[in-house]
Structures are given as C-alpha cells and as structure tokens.
Amino acid sequence: MRLAGRVSAAIDVLTEIFERHRPASEALKDWGKAHRFAGSTDRHAIGTLVYDALRRRNSLGFRMGSDAPRALALAGLRDVWGLSTDAIGSMAEEQHGPGKLTVEERTALSRALPADLPVHVAGDVPEWLVASYEKAFGPRAAAEGAALAQRAPVDLRVNLLKAERGQVLSALERFGAIEGPWSPLAVRIAAPGPETRNANVEAEPAHGLGWFEVQDAGSQVAALLSGVEPGMKVADICAGAGGKTLALAAMMKNEGTLVAHDLDRFRLRPIFERLTRAGVTNCEVISAQDKGKLEAAGPFDTVVIDAPCSGSGSWRRKPDAKWRLTPKQFAQRIKDQAQVLEKGFQLAKPGGIILYITCSVLPEENTEQVAAFLSHHKEMRLVPYKQVWARMIGGVAPDSADGAADTLVLTPARHDTDGFFMAVMKKGG
Ligand SMILES: C[S@@+](CC[C@H](N)C(=O)[O-])C[C@H]1O[C@@H](n2cnc3c(N)ncnc32)[C@H](O)[C@@H]1O
C-alpha cells in the first residue's frame, strides 16, 4: 500500500473507534482481518497514524476546526509526521487516497497556531480534567499533558532470577536496546515511528526463557520502592496479570512468601504462565473465589496495592482511554481505591508497610486519596520515598513532578517514564 491508501484506512479505523466506541487495538485488529492483502508494514503505519491522531485529538482538532476522523488524520500527518501541506495535498488525490483537500483544509493545515493555546488543547488533556492537571502541575500542566501525548518507548525489566542486564542488552542488540532510566533493571527500546516497526520482543527466545518482561521503567521503580527483601511475607493484592508480582518475586530471590491476589480472576489468569516462565517458586495465587484465604495468609510485612485507577499515566500507550474516561468512572475508581486501601490496612501487620501505587498523575487518585486514608488511620504514617529510594535504588532520588516531599509522581515530561504515583506508608512502629 502507498501512503494514500494507509491514510484512508486510518480514517476508516478512527471512524470505527469514534462511532462504535471500540478500543483502538480491537478496531485495528478487525481492520487487519478484513483486509488480508495489507502487509504488516502497512498495518503498522496505519496503527501509528491512528494512535498519533488519538494522542493529540484536541490539538489536531483545534488546528482543523474539527475532530472528525479525516481532519485528525490529515493534521496528524502535518503535526506529528512532519509532512508539508503540499505533500498531504498530493497524497490525498492519489488513487485510494482520502480525496482532494478542501480550501478550508489547506488553510487549516498551513496556519501557524497561536502560542497561548488553552491547556486542554496545548496539553491534549480532556477539558474536564484541566483543573486536576493544574492542581498537580500548576503552570506546567500543558507541558505535562503534551508529554503524555507523545509516542512511548518499550521498556523491559530484566528478571534477575534468570539473567543479568548485560545478557538482555546483548540478546536485543539488533533492536537498539539500551539501558533504561532509573531502574537498574531497565532496558529500553526507542519508540517506533511509522517506518520503524515495533520490536516484537515477546517473540524473542530470551523472552521465552524468562530473561525479561515488558514493564515501564516507572512501574519498575514502583516495585523497588516496596522495599521487599528475601524472606519477607508479602501480598500484592491488586496483582492483575502480575507485572508487579514478578518484579517482587525477583527482589525476594524466591525466598519468603509472596501472595498474588486480585478481585477479578480473569485479570489474574495470565499470571500462572508468567510466574512459570520467570522461574518464580515462592508465589501463591489467591483469587477472590478463595473466600477467607487471603486473610488467613496474613498478616503481611508488606502489602503492595497497585490500585485500579484512571490509567492517566499510561495515556501515551492507550490514548483512546484518555477520551473514553468519564467523570462517573473516575469517581468510581476513587471509591475503589479507598476500598482497596482499607483492605490493605487490614492485611498489613503492625509495623508493616503499605505501598500504594497508581498509574495516574491525577491528585484525586494520588495525594488526596492518601491524605484521606491517613486521616482515617492515625497509626499510619508516610515514609518519605527518598529514604526508600536511597536504600533500594541508590543515587540521588528525583524530585516528584507534583513537588510533594514524601510521595513520588513520575511523569514522561520530568522523568522519561510513564506516569506513576507511589506512597510508602508504615503501620505504627
Ligand atoms: C492497575 S491494575 C493491576 C496491574 C498489575 N498489578 C500489574 O502490575 O500488571 C489494578 C487491579 O486491581 C484489581 N482490583 C480492583 N479492585 C480490587 C479490590 N477491591 N481488591 C483486589 N483487587 C482489586 C483490578 O481487577 C485490577 O486487576
């Protein structure tokens, strides 16, 4: 396929996503199934344009005066792919292309945008969340939003139960793998562009051997700040597919007890295969159907709560979720977090640690949630994250993106990771 055909396909996929409220990944998969003639390079380029347009829906829509699929795709070619208006115009008129540009489209594609764009446009943030962004980041709200609207690299966590970082770097040399930021276990592969294919690292023998897992460097830091050590009794009570669980098991060197639990047994399902591949031998998986079993396994030295959240810190990777989130869902997540924090409190032993994590940058889910929890539990206190960082990671800990002294917000703009929040809390003692 030539670019013209790929752009038309991207417009069709965006239409499907908007009109039928489909997740982008599913809409793209279905398009591929229905157009078997398209090769993997075509599918990759179409997917790249779809995701680029979704990440920057507000700013691209502002440029065009419309956020219709065609407008977003054309503006994406201009603002993200760097094509000139003339190049877009010629492409559009080719066979299978999206059709001749109108005079209005040409004007919109050629104009310079004003410097003082509102935050929801400059930062590609849903308008109803601007107040939250400003609460977190003050005058840097737009810059933080804009960084969350860029393509993201692929980060891997080296599994020390099976390999060293040097081995993984060598195994993935042809993908241009380099050391990732902050975590001593992080390996990074640069974000792919339209012409550079995604590194399908999970198809590599080194992945099959359990040498690494795909995990953002920020998520790796979150696991490290749990402070867990070999021999401890640890519960990961929102384990999902086990991203943090695997990291915790490696930190424990398979010594001690690790319990992985999740309310949703379907989310938990992939954990079994992942634990086996990673060589984890000290983990017991307890689903919500095993009534009373989690409580009976406690109390725990450390309870890790990787809480359900808006996912705002992952919007580089799941940009459609950014526009799908509703105030009602957001309010529900906040209630869920309060509930799971209570559960964690019950499970932690006196003197134990609770690590509260979200993959969000929004204060309602982060500092405000923790403040509410601490106000109900006078025996809980925050352990400044820099103390734990010094012990577990070493070197100078970065400042939190929201300026907080004791809790840490990592962001793409400030730390070159996905957005994450972590609060380490101690129960009495
Ligand atoms: C952010 S995801 C976990 C991601 C996972 N820890 C990882 O690293 O891949 C949050 C999880 O919390 C689970 N969850 C929500 N409410 C819960 C509750 N009250 N108790 C336990 N798990 C809960 C959800 O099913 C979801 O799998």
From TrEMBL:
Please list the residues that bind S-adenosyl-L-methionine: 262, 306
Sorted alphabetically, which Pfam families does this protein's record hold?
Answer: Methyltr_RsmB-F, RsmF-B_ferredox
GO BP terms? RNA methylation
Sorted alphabetically, which keywords does the UniProt record give?
Methyltransferase, RNA-binding, S-adenosyl-L-methionine, Transferase
What InterPro entries has UniProt attached to this entry?
MeTrfase_RsmB-F_NOP2_cat, MeTrfase_RsmB-F_NOP2_dom, RCMT, RsmB-like_ferredoxin, SAM-dependent_MTases_sf
The record's GO molecular-function terms, alphabetically, read:
RNA binding; RNA methyltransferase activity
Which residue ranges traverse the bilayer? none
- Residue numbers annotated as active site: 359 (nucleophile)
Alphabetical list of PROSITE patterns matching this protein: SAM_MT_RSMB_NOP
Domain SAM-dependent MTase RsmB/NOP-type, residue spans = 144-428
Q: Which CDD domains has this protein been placed in?
A: AdoMet_MTases
Q: Which family does it belong to?
A: Belongs to the class I-like SAM-binding methyltransferase superfamily. RsmB/NOP family.
Official protein name in the record: MFS transporter
Q: Which organism is it from?
A: Aestuariivirga litoralis
